[in-house]
Amino acid sequence: MSDFEQFHYDSYQSSYTIDDQEAYNSYGFNENLCGSKKSQTGEQPPASAFIPSEMLLSSQSYTGQILQPMYSPDTHLSYADGFDEEPPLLEELGINFEHIWQKTLTVLNPMKPADGSIMNETDLTGPVVFCLALGGTLLLVGKVHFGYVYGMSAIGCLAMHALLNLMSIPGVSHGCVASVLGYCLLPMVILSVSAVVFSLQGILGISLALFIIGWCSLSASKIFTSALAMEGQQLLIAYPCALLYGLFALLTVF
């Protein structure tokens, strides 16, 4: 009986000591943990230290709501002024209908003096339209010559560019040469339209073709001399232009 009481007393004493030690250890651990957290929070700078002052000011001055931003008439006016100052879309693309019309009238009237400032522009809208018109009218006669039209145009532009750079002091760009030669192709479109109405393989057709060749070469040489300040050299420029447009006339007649 004494042994059992001694065992019971020992076990009760040991369990009480363990529980008490665990509670003490846990309390000390929690105290150390709280102390470490306080030390960490004390060492760390506040979160506002990393935020720029501009952001703090902007966030404080904002008075709008979520999905309902604050209205400012100055912002609306600035956007409106920006849209008003933008150039038109056609002007950004380099398409000026007034200049196209002036160049067309200059080609249609070989005796009219050409404006060198306008003719020196690299406008390819008119030349592309006239090349398509020439190919389309030839297609109405049964001649599919789109490749020949574009091929001869490209080779003729390169040859005239090299020749004009040798003859003129300021020089000329490829775009300017292509623009002038393309606009002066308009009388050739008139010849191809005539081929739809009647046959050009005769005296009347040959005479009309020679007249159209002289018309195109005279207009092109006049524009080149005015744009490049090549006074007294119009006949020298008109000869290679007549050779180039003679190829288009042969393509149209035969």
From TrEMBL:
Write down the superkingdom of origin: Eukaryota
**Cross-referenced InterPro entries:** Yip1/4-like
The membrane topology noted for this protein in its Swiss-Prot or TrEMBL record is: Multi-pass membrane protein
Q: Which GO terms describe its biological process?
A: endoplasmic reticulum to Golgi vesicle-mediated transport; vesicle fusion with Golgi apparatus
In which compartments does the protein localize? Membrane
**Keyword vocabulary terms for this entry:** Membrane, Transmembrane, Transmembrane helix
Any one cellular component term from GO for this entry?
membrane
Q: Could you list the residue ranges that cross the membrane?
A: 124-141, 203-224, 236-253
Query: Main localization of the protein?
Result: membrane
Q: Which family does it belong to?
A: Belongs to the YIP1 family.
Q: Which PANTHER family does the record cross-reference, listed alphabetically?
A: GOLGI MEMBRANE PROTEIN YIP1, PROTEIN YIPF7
Write down what this protein is called.
Answer: Protein YIPF7
What species is given as this protein's source? Eurypyga helias
